[in-house]
């Protein structure tokens, strides 16, 4: 696949080159391995380079992928990909997960994942993270791992990759696979972190997920095989038992190394052979476990009562999972099935929008952990009347089984498929290497191939040419997909109901033939129905700014535009419209229904067009109208295409010029918030999501989740009363970034936003942005969840505004250092928290309100430890300059991240958006390299001394209700 050079702005192109060229700090000496002799790697001539992934398939192999099988059985797939430049994505997949465990081994696959990253043959304890940090990789995002029921995957996105760096990284991976450090000391250190990961998971969601597995897959291993394991088996784990699991399943014949990145595929293959060719498994290769078949044991229905979750109904029609060769006809038949599911989902969504008995309902088709092929239904009712919701959903499905759709309905869903797949073809050359590597992992897990976008699109077109997408085919597919070897159902109610099981059984078998109702036929809609705007606006000023160069444009009506015409991302155009004053326009002395805007504002329609009309209008096109509230502006956003962005801008402008105020989306937004409201009390995470933002703003009602009474009181009239003037006032900036021609983009803005009437400036709230005062004792909030869960927060006030870009970047580095130390002490050493974090939040659009915040989810008795360690770290950063190696391990990954991100247009959009009214934002985008490289141990110490002041910190703890007074 031909790849073209990316267009880089000079500052970050220089950043990429300079950061790669920086000499690495000396790494600690590797300890000599005590392992026995390793077989020498095979010669390249011994490698079988046939495309093993496509065995049994008639799908043409993607020529960009290079395949190989080593004599020891290890397979590889490598390809060149320059997106982003300099990065190489590495994935090492082991074909073993929690379904490969015995009852006594539950959690071992995941535990080995942790131990492998902790230390292995070529890396001392805890050093792998630091090695990759020195290479520029960020721990957690660039280097990580995951365990599922069927696989364990190790991940590295290596920035600034050279042959030497990749060689060293593959050497580390080879040691992790063959000889992880499964020792008494390592197990004692890592077991608490795994138990903390288990403890920190939200209890109600975990219990619901467990109930789903136990009900749907009763009688199969999947029912009782959560990857996290059990407390009993984890606490009983010994080095010998864990090693036995490793020796049985970690072997070359079960390993695949995947590389997609900016490197010669032949070099990548040679390095894989060099580092993995000598690996030998221990003993005979065992057969795969029997994952069982659905329908054997257990009741067909189950009811649970989780009061913090809304009423939920989930059903499954299950069939055995059977391996099938991944052929063209197999994929074409599956496309027919997916279209049939889309038809049902659209009808369900139409009923939900109209105010039916359910808030949301959907059907899906999936292969689950090679244990079952299933058709699944999920229903969230309005209020507590789950019986009516279940019957109504069943009625829609029964109608789809009995009565064919029109060909027009089928063609509409096909148009969506066609547009999405055609867009993949158009943007294929800018598909990220990491995504390609992840797609390969997914294909291996489900035993399928990976087809290039053009091949996939051709398969769809060939199916259309065969006439496979007919109304009759949809009925046949629907009937087949809702039949199986077992039918299961799970019901959650807010309160225990002894009669729930009986009611569920009755609702599943009740006659629903009269409930389907008349199918809604969507009328044809075209752009002639979009409200007319004025004459195209005249350009009154234009200038070129920044590097990479962008154009600022001012129109006669006051609208401004920022245009970055850069074809590096073929077929992609990013739109952002900033209008009004955002949070600054909301009153700071009373609550408002602003919270419902994200859900209901766009859905309420445009002019005479309701939400269904807008869906029809954009069918087969890549258009969007996302909404958000920013600190200093309201935001519309979309990712679109060169052929669609002009009409997308017209829709956005029409939303401001002629908003529609349908009541149903507001009612639905209220119902959605109320459905999930009890969940806020169910865990520390829920309490933080509800309260923390408002508390960090000293109780300012513009931020945080509104009180339940306010949600219940929301009316469509109140919603319109707030939003109508906000849509009509305040400045407008239109940002168009991507694969466009500058003159055409300016003309598109002129015809849309430039054609609007001049707008009033819009009021700014007089309420100042405040940070809470220092507290001697933490602010306490309580939750109703598991009594072993708590969370602790410590925050310090900083600043805000675009002029402080150097200060904000220094704080980013300071927060990263803080986070790394907190991770090492709270997780790696104390084992008290799985994922402690720290970050700096500097609002560019406000002059104040910034903060450095650290959060740890811990056991209740470890809350004091969190505060102790956090204050200890803060005091050390103030008193002692950090070492050069620690500074480098912090800054180099940040520089590498920005270097990679800057090859894409979204990076520059985020950096410069708002720059036509605040030129300092564009100026700040020019100083990224200088601001970062100017940071020294001494300057970072000065930043810590300025902000990490003990008399300014604010603390909070979320504890179980029963322990609030302890």
Radius of gyration: 29 Å
Distance between the termini: 64 Å
| Biggest beta-sheet profile | 7 strands, mixed
Low-confidence sequence ranges: 1-37
Q: Give the neighbour order of strands across the main sheet.
A: 12-13-14-18-15-17-16
In DSSP terms (H or I, runs of 4 or more residues), the helix count works out at: 31
Average predicted confidence as pLDDT? 94
Question: Would you spell out the secondary-structure blueprint of this structure?
Answer:
Elements: H1 10-21, E1 66-69, E2 75-80, E3 88-94, H2 108-118, H3 127-134, E4 143-147, E5 152-158, H4 163-178, H5 184-200, H6 203-216, H7 231-236, H8 239-249, E6 255-261, H9 265-276, E7 301-305, E8 312-319, H10 328-353, E9 358-368, E10 372-381, H11 386-402, H12 407-426, H13 433-445, H14 453-465, H15 471-481, E11 486-493, H16 500-509, E12 539-545, E13 550-555, E14 560-565, E15 573-579, H17 597-600, H18 611-617, E16 626-629, E17 634-640, H19 645-657, H20 664-677, H21 684-696, H22 708-713, H23 716-728, E18 732-738, H24 742-751, E19 779-783, E20 790-797, H25 805-829, E21 837-841, E22 851-858, H26 863-879, H27 884-901, H28 905-912, H29 919-925, H30 928-933, H31 937-947, E23 954-960
Parallel strand pairs: 2-6, 7-11, 14-18, 19-23
Antiparallel strand pairs: 1-2, 3-5, 3-6, 4-5, 8-10, 8-11, 9-10, 12-13, 13-14, 15-17, 15-18, 16-17, 20-22, 20-23, 21-22
Helix pairs in contact: 1-27, 2-5, 4-9, 10-11, 10-12, 10-14, 10-15, 11-15, 11-16, 12-14, 19-24, 25-26, 25-31, 26-31
């Amino acid at each position: 696949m031909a790849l073209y050079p990316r267009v880089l702005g000079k500052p970050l192109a220089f950043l990429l080159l300079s950061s790669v060229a920086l000499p690495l700090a000396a790494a600690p000496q590797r300890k000599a391995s005590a392992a026995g002799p390793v077989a020498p790697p095979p010669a390249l001539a011994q490698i079988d380079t046939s495309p093993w992934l496509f065995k049994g398939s008639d799908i043409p192999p993607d020529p960009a992928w290079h395949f190989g099988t080593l004599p020891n059985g290890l397979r590889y797939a490598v390809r060149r990909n320059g997106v982003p430049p300099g990065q190489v994505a590495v994935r090492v997949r082991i074909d073993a997960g929690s379904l490969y465990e015995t009852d006594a081994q539950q959690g071992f696959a995941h535990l080995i994942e942790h131990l492998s990253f902790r230390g292995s043959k070529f890396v001392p304890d805890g050093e792998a993270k630091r090695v990759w940090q020195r290479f520029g990789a960020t721990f957690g995002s660039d280097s990580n791992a995951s365990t599922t029921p069927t696989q364990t995957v190790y991940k590295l996105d290596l920035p600034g990759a050279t042959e030497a760096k990749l060689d060293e990284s593959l050497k580390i991976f080879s040691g992790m696979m063959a000889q992880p450090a499964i020792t008494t000391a390592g197990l004692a250190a890592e077991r608490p972190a795994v138990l903390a990961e288990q403890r920190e998971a939200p209890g109600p969601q975990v219990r619901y997920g467990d109930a789903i597995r136990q009900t749907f897959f009763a009688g199969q291993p999947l029912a009782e095989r959560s990857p996290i394991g059990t407390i009993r088996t984890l606490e009983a784990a010994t080095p010998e038992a864990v090693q036995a699991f490793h020796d049985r399943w970690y072997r070359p014949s079960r390993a695949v190394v995947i590389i997609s990145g900016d490197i010669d595929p032949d070099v990548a293959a040679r390095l894989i052979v060099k580092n993995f060719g000598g690996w030998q498994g221990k003993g005979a290769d065992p057969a795969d476990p029997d994952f069982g078949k659905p329908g054997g044991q257990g009741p067909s229905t189950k009811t649970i009562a989780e009061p913090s979750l809304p009423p939920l109904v989930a059903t499954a029609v299950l069939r055995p999972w059977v391996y099938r060769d991944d052929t063209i006809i197999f994929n074409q038949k599956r496309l027919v099935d997916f279209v049939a599911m889309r038809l049902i989902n659209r009808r369900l969504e139409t009923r939900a929008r109209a105010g039916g008995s359910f808030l949301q309902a959907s059907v899906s088709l999936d292969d689950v952990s090679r244990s079952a092929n299933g058709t699944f239904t999920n229903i969230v009712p309005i209020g507590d009347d789950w019986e009516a919701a279940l019957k109504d959903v069943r009625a829609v499905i029964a109608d789809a089984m009995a009565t064919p759709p029109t060909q027009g309905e089928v063609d509409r869903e096909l148009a969506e498929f066609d547009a999405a797949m055609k867009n993949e073809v158009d943007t294929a050359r800018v598909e990220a290497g990491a995504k390609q590597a992840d797609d390969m992992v997914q294909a291996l897990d489900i035993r399928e191939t990976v087809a290039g976008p053009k091949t996939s699109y051709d398969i769809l077109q060939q199916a259309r040419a065969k006439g496979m997408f007919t109304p009759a085919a949809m009925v046949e597919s629907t009937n087949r997909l809702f039949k199986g070897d077992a039918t299961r159902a799970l019901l959650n109610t807010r309160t225990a109901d002894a009669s729930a099981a009986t009611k569920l059984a009755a609702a599943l078998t009740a006659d629903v033939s009269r409930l389907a109702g008349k199918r809604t036929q969507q009328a044809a809609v075209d752009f002639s129905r979009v409200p007319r705007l004025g004459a195209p606006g005249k350009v009154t000023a234009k200038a070129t700014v920044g590097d990479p160069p962008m154009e600022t444009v001012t129109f006669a009506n006051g609208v401004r535009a920022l245009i970055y015409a850069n074809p590096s991302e073929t077929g992609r155009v990013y739109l952002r419209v900033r209008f009004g004053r955002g949070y600054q326009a909301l009153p700071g002395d009373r609550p408002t229904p602003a919270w419902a805007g994200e859900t209901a504002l766009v859905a309420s329609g445009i002019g005479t067009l309701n939400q269904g009309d807008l869906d029809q209008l954009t069918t087969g096109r890549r258009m969007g109208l996302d909404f958000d509230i920013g600190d200093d502006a309201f935001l519309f956003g979309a990712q679109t295409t060169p052929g669609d962005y002009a009409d997308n801008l017209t829709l956005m402008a029409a939303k401001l010029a002629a908003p529609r105020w349908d009541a149903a989306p507001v009612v639905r937004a209220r119902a959605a918030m109320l459905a999930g409201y009890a969940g806020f009390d169910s865990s520390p995470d829920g309490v933080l999501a509800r309260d923390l933002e408002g508390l960090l703003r000293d109780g300012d009602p513009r931020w945080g989740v509104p009180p339940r009474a306010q949600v219940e009181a929301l009316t469509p009239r109140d919603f319109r009363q707030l939003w109508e003037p906000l849509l009509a006032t305040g400045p407008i900036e239109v940002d168009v970034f991507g694969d466009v021609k500058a003159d055409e983009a300016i003309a598109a803005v002129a015809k849309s936003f430039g054609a609007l009437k001049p707008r009033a400036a819009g009021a700014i709230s007089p309420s100042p942005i405040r940070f809470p005062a220092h507290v001697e004792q933490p602010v306490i909030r309580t939750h109703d969840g598991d009594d072993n869960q708590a969370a602790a927060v410590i925050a310090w006030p900083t600043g805000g505004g675009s002029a402080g870009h150097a200060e904000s970047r220094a704080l980013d580095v300071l927060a990263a250092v803080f986070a790394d130390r907190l991770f090492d002490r709270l997780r790696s050493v104390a084992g008290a928290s799985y994922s402690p974090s720290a970050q700096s939040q500097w609002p560019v659009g406000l002059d104040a309100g910034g903060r450095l915040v650290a959060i740890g989810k811990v056991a209740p008795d470890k809350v004091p430890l969190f505060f102790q360690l956090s204050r200890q770290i803060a005091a050390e950063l103030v008193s002692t300059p950090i070492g050069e190696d620690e500074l480098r391990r912090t800054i180099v990954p940040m520089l590498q991240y920005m270097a990679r991100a800057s090859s894409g247009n979204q990076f520059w959009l985020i950096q410069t958006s708002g720059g036509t009214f605040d030129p300092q934002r564009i100026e700040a985008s020019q100083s990224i390299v200088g601001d970062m490289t100017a940071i020294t141990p001494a300057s970072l110490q000065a930043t810590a001394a300025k902000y990490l002041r003990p008399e300014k910190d604010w603390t909070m703890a979320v504890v179980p209700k029963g322990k609030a007074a302890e």
